[in-house]
Design a protein that fits this description.
This protein has about 750 residues and is an alpha/beta fold. The chain folds into three domains: about 200 residues, Growth Hormone, Chain: A; about 80 residues; about 250 residues, Rossmann fold (3-Layer(aba) Sandwich). About 55% of the residues lie in helices and about 10% in strands. It has 25 helices and 13 strands. The chain has a seven-stranded mixed β-sheet with strand order 7-6-5-8-9-11-10, with helices on both faces. α3 runs antiparallel to α12. The longest helix has 30 residues.
Length: about 750
């Protein structure tokens, strides 16, 4: 290897890229490791991101402080830190018990800190430190450009995990692979250390040259704000998507990946892409921001594209403004420290403050408004603004236009229905045009952005939040909806319904639990199959609909992770299934795998797993280890009912693989009610019935038909799809990618 490479730009680029790749490869890996213990709530990911941002801040602060030392001392100390952090290899989760109250808002950060804190800290510091060493080794050129390589490596590590690593390697192999790459990183840092030890142009002074101007606190606060808003938007976009579109870990990676990629564009030597994004960002914000309150429903992927595109454009524009105002390279570490402080503030706001303060994901529109105030804006219209009179006149005109837009939005919200009509569309279009006209005037522009949001669903959401119909916990954001005549009430998480009740038939099981659904048929026949006094269990409370199948003498247990769901289901003023049908229901708070494992073996005659409603996939509840917990909790001839209704995943092969293990007999029922029944509150559903006893399964299903091309069979049970080699999930190995369908219809 040439001496030029051992000291030159290529070495430092490779080192920075490797460290950043490892840093963001470990994030989804640890989240995947923690899934069996923590579950798949979006807030878990937000808590994890807060930990990562805090450790990143600590690493940047350490790099900033270390950069003041003599070069050789910097090298020695950092190599020692990397060696000490290696004591946490291979990566594993700390053995902390989940709190008894079921609220892990502070427990999750402590668990992650104890598990990977030292390793993440050591690797996080290397990016700014290597950029500092780049100059100390006698290299010329812009060290900030190396930050683009850092974020490109981060993006690569993040995307590599769901696409390559997770589908190919079990968890244990993943940890050893990461350990090997950590050893490679240590060697690269050691070579960089040799470069600054032997560099001819090294100065013995680590302080900034006298020519570098001091950095004001106003400038520091500006950098912090520019960093905080994109960081918060990355997390708020994640929460927004998982609340109103779909809840899946794969989706969590997309906003983070685009956030990281924005740095690569914003800090690149080639400035044209960053300049283009900065110029179009205001127009993108006023148009994209108008969709923030839309309910996308079946057009979920359109919403995904709009949301992540808006995030990326805004992040590039705000980060490019940071780059434009960057200090002298000698103050590089302080600049990155302020950037990291902003990242932590944005993360803390979304992960801790917002769930405690708001009853919906209000942090998302708030951060979009903050972006409107911070964006560099190109003035599309000018009326001789070099003259004071014209400048004042244009300022007044833009404010008047903004106030007009707010007035239009108020009219739309108070007088026009939620459904989009021609008049409403025309008025929203006028607001959007107004946003383009006032671009360049921050206050006026921000007011128009607010108007666009309010006109397109914002007023309705404000009313819902003020009415008390919305509630938020660590595990989700819920809305109590009802029809105009109040005859039907339902609970939703974004576009996902979690239960429904009819006012004139309050004890009738509806939605996914009707009399012709798989679970409805099973529970109606529980007494016939198992006799008087059967013990029934349900994982996932929802509104408590299944309680109304309970008969005298039977015992009912619910297993629910979210305390707020228990409050909603037990409040008879909201839903009265439990109060009217089973007031003596036994409630178990906590993750279902943990609480079920605490039950005596052979407790349940029937056990329903109802944690997969619509698009949410608690992966850890479908693994081999999870089914072992269910098998233990059931009696030897017990029946397991698994709800797999889903808009985006076909879970049939996963269950089929578990059944093929030899421990279960299984059949699928797809209940597809006619339109008349749907209008009465029934919904299509897929339930799989499983039992270790073929006879008991036959008592429920009767003849099980072969599955033919026509997928929907309203009145029969059918065989499961034949499983493939890797369809059986385990805690150590599972990937959702093979089961993702963009065109699946339930």
């Amino acid at each position: 290897m040439s001496d030029g490479f051992l000291r030159g730009r290529g070495l430092f680029v490779l080192t920075i890229f490797t460290g950043s790749f490892l840093l963001f490869l470990v994030q989804p890996m640890v989240a995947r490791m923690a899934l069996p213990r923590l579950g798949g709530a979006p807030a878990v990911w937000n808590s994890a991101m807060l930990v990562y941002q805090a450790l990143l801040l600590a690493g940047y602060a350490y790099a900033h402080r270390l950069s003041r030392e003599a070069p050789k001392r910097q090298a020695g100390v950092h190599l020692a830190v990397l060696i000490a952090a290696a004591l946490w290899l291979p990566i594993s989760l700390a053995s902390f018990a989940i709190p008894a109250d079921g609220s892990p808002i502070f427990w999750v950060p402590w668990l992650l800190l104890a598990s990977i804190g030292p390793l993440f800290f050591a690797v996080a510091a290397q990016a700014p430190l290597m950029q500092r060493w780049f100059g100390l080794a006698g290299n010329s050129g812009e060290p900030y450009a190396l930050y683009a390589a850092s974020n490109l490596g981060s993006f690569g590590g993040l995307i590599a995990y769901p696409l390559l690593v997770e589908p190919s390697l079990p968890i244990k192999a993943q940890t050893w692979m990461w350990s090997g790459l950590y050893a490679v990183l240590f060697l690269l840092v050691a070579v960089c250390a040799r470069a600054i030890w032997s560099g001819r142009n090294i100065t013995s002074e680590a302080t900034a040259p006298a020519s570098a101007p001091p950095i004001s606190w106003r400038q520091r606060l500006y950098w912090i704000a520019l960093a905080a808003v994109p960081s918060g938007l990355m997390l708020s976009t994640t929460s927004h998507l998982t609340t109103d579109l779909m809840a899946m870990p794969l989706i969590w990676v997309i906003p983070l990946g685009l956030y990281l990629l924005s740095f690569s564009v914003a800090f690149a030597d080639y400035r044209l892409p960053a300049d283009i994004f900065s110029r179009i960002a205001p127009a993108i914000l006023v148009v994209g921001g108008a969709s923030v309150f839309m309910i996308w429903g079946k057009a979920a992927y359109n919403g995904l594209i709009v949301s992540v595109s808006l995030l990326f454009v805004l992040a590039v524009a705000l980060h490019a403004e940071m780059y434009r105002t960057r200090p002298d390279a000698s103050r590089l570490t302080e600049f990155y420290l302020m950037m990291s402080v902003g990242g932590v503030i944005g993360g803390f706001f979304c992960a801790i403050i917002a769930p405690l303060l708001f009853n919906w994901t209000w942090e998302h529109p708030i951060l979009l408004i903050a972006a409107a105030l911070l964006l560099p804006q190109l003035r599309l219209f000018s009326l001789g603004e070099e003259e004071t009179y014209a400048k004042r006149g244009w300022t007044i005109a833009t404010l008047a236009i903004a106030l007009m837009a707010l007035g239009i939005s108020l009219y739309v919200g108070m007088n026009l229905p939620t459904e989009t009509g021609q008049l409403k569309t025309a008025l929203i279009a006028i607001i959007l045009i107004a946003g383009l006209v006032v671009t360049g005037r921050r206050i006026a522009f921000a007011l128009v952005v607010i108007a666009a949001m309010l006109a397109n669903g914002g007023w309705d959401n404000v009313e819902l939040s003020n009415s008390g119909a919305r509630m938020r916990s660590y595990f989700g954001t819920y809305t109590i909806n009802q029809s105009k005549d109040a005859s039907v009430r339902w609970l939703s998480h974004g576009t996902t319904m979690h239960g429904m009740q009819l006012r004139d038939k309050p004890t009738l099981p509806v939605s996914y639990y009707g009399a012709t659904s798989g679970v409805g048929l099973a529970w109606q026949r529980a007494e016939e199959i198992y006799g008087v006094g059967a013990t029934l269990g349900v994982v996932g409370l929802g509104t408590g609909t299944l309680a109304c199948y309970k008969k005298p003498g039977q015992t009912l247990h619910y297993f629910e992770i979210d305390p707020l769901m228990i409050e909603i289901a037990r409040d008879r003023k909201i839903f009265s299934f439990l109060e009217k049908c089973a007031p003596d229901t036994k409630m178990h708070l906590g993750d279902a795998r943990l609480t079920l494992a605490e039950q005596p073996a052979g407790t349940f005659d029937m056990l329903a797993i109802d944690a997969f409603s619509s698009d949410s996939i608690p992966l850890h509840l479908l693994t081999k280890e999870a089914f072992e917990v269910y098998r233990r909790a059931l009696k030897p001839d017990g029946l397991l009912l698994v709800h797999i209704s889903n808009r985006h995943f076909d879970l049939n092969p996963v269950i089929a693989a578990e059944a093929a293990s030899g421990k279960w007999f299984a059949a699928l029922r797809h209940d597809s009610p006619p339109e008349a029944i749907i209008n009465q509150g029934m919904r299509p559903s897929q339930w799989i019935a499983m039992s270790p006893d073929a006879g008991k399964l036959a008592q429920l299903t009767g003849k099980v038909y072969d599955k033919r091309p026509a997928y929907f069979y309203p009145d029969r049970w059918v065989k499961l799809k034949p499983p493939r080699a890797n369809d059986r999930w385990t805690d150590d190995y599972a990937s959702v990618l093979p089961y993702l369908s963009f065109w699946k219809v339930l």
